[in-house]
Amino acid sequence: MSGAPARPIDVAVGILVQPNGDVLLGQRPAGKPYAGYWEFPGGKVDPGETVLEALKREFVEELGLTINRAEEWCGIEHVYPHAHVRLHFFISRDWTGEPQSLEGQAFAWQGTVGVEPLLPATIPLLEWLEQVRYG
């Protein structure tokens, strides 16, 4: 192998937090890498888009939700066998609408996260999230 490693793919990820602290997780649909794994919703940042614009677009496309306000929380890079991603996490407590399964994916509000399997990059975040989600 030669050459520089591929540039990571920027991905906007949203953590919706209800007043009781529950967070929304979605299940990756069939046909995608890690199908059936649970993760926080989001998607790739398109050329010319800011990360926040991508987040808002993805939530409308995937879940039919309008994010009114979101704060950038943290960023991590994760190398999967199929892709090197740079995940930009936002926390939102202010959105409009109820989640709908627009891409045929399952989703669930979780207090103590009980869904499995979790996408590997999601696991460390759950521990960090415990410190902020009841803010």
Automatic annotation (TrEMBL):
It comes from Rugamonas fusca. Gene3D superfamilies: Nucleoside Triphosphate Pyrophosphohydrolase. This is 8-oxo-dGTP diphosphatase. One of its GO terms (biological process) is DNA replication. Its cofactor is Mg(2+). It is an enzyme of class 3 (hydrolase). Belongs to the Nudix hydrolase family. InterPro entries: Mutator_MutT, MutT-like, Nudix_hydrolase, NUDIX_hydrolase-like_dom_sf, NUDIX_hydrolase_CS, NUDIX_hydrolase_dom. It catalyses: 8-oxo-GTP + H2O = 8-oxo-GMP + diphosphate + H(+); 8-oxo-dGTP + H2O = 8-oxo-dGMP + diphosphate + H(+). Residues 6-131 form the Nudix hydrolase domain. It comes from the Bacteria. Mg(2+) binds at G42, E62. The keyword Thylakoid does not apply. CDD domains: NUDIX_MutT_NudA_like.
